[in-house]
Amino acid sequence: MATDDDLLKSWPSRLQGAWQVLAGQSSNAVRPESLVFSNRAKEHPQAPLIESLIAGVPGAAIVLDQDGGVIAFNEAARSIAPALRRGEPALISLRMPELVDAIRRASKSHEPQRVEFFERVPLDRWFEAFVVPVKLAGVAGWHAEILLLTFNDLSPLRRVEEMRADFVANASHELRTPLAALLGFIETLQGPAKNDAVAREKFLGIMQQQAARMARLIDDLLSLSRIELNAHLQPNVAVDLAPIVRQVADGLQTLARDRAVEIKLTMPPEPLVVLGDRDELIRALENLVENALKYGEAGKRVEITLSRAATRTGSPEARIAVRDYGPGIAPEHLPRLTERFYRVDVADSRAQGGTGLGLALVKHVLNRHGGRLSVDSTPGQGATFVMHVPLRTADSAPGGELS
Question: Which of 213, 249, 70, 255 is CA-nearest to residue 149?
Answer without folding.
Answer: 70
